[in-house]
Amino acid sequence: MTRRSFYSDRTRGRPLRDKEVVDKVAWRGLLAVIDSRTEDNWLANEFPEQCPDGNGISGTNQSRLDDVLAAFIPDLSWPIGYADRDEVPETHQILDLVDFIGQRIAKPKPGPYHSYYRHNELNFDVPAGREEFRHEVNLLFARSGLAYEVSPDMEVERLGPSEARQTLVDLDPDSGDEIFDDLVLEAKRRFLSRDPGDHSVGLEKLWDAFERLKTLGPGKDKKSQMNALLDRLSSGSWRAHLDAEAMQLTGIGNSMTIRHFEIGKESLPDGATDYLFTRMASLMLYILRSTGRLQE
Known about the structure:
By secondary structure, the chain is mostly helical. It folds into two domains: 16-158, no CATH class; 162-290. The chain is 51% helix and 9% strand. Helix 2 runs antiparallel to helix 5, helix 7 packs antiparallel against helix 8 and helix 8 (196-213) runs parallel beside helix 11.
């Protein structure tokens, strides 16, 4: 497989990937990649057109592909005519399309030649097809500054805010407390969801995990347990700063609509969810790393 790259990426670094809405240029690029793969029979393994002699796959059954795709993504107008390519669908529709194609793609390889119909029977390499498609789409996402990535499982995932990405990777708990670990992993899953409605749920789960974390130290109540946990990290002024940070985050959680939704609680403003998740995750990662509670 040929790995494509760009001079500016190698010398100046890739563009900041902070966009969560697919624009017209990126949409047309994705559509061109998908069209190219479709025309070259990379979807024929899932949607085969049988040779008339019945002895192998000769191409792609385009009508079957179109019907199935339209059924699985009913809010996406498909197939898309050339005149309609400047009309950009909703981002979730575009990413569903990438999922659909990527999970069904396979690289065609010529098999036996059928002399009567003058074509080769097609064989397919699924891993190679997935890897090439994944690399090309991820390169397009990166060059377009989009905060999405196709995973090895061929699912488009949200990367999250750029300042939080390494923290999210490293925040992989092994605390000995299954409930706490599950809360953190669910918080990450929700926060990285492509559905914006899940992000606030992820923040709520992370706050729940923080409250659970406070009880992992020895002591008779949550305050003494949290103090015992922080005492393991440091002393002096740094210890006081950690205590102040934990208390401030607790106060935010109690006064804003994160874990509590009673009348009188103030709603988070736009953009605050990403900021608070990043801030809380960073504190929790520091505590977990300093106390040996991360996966090795």
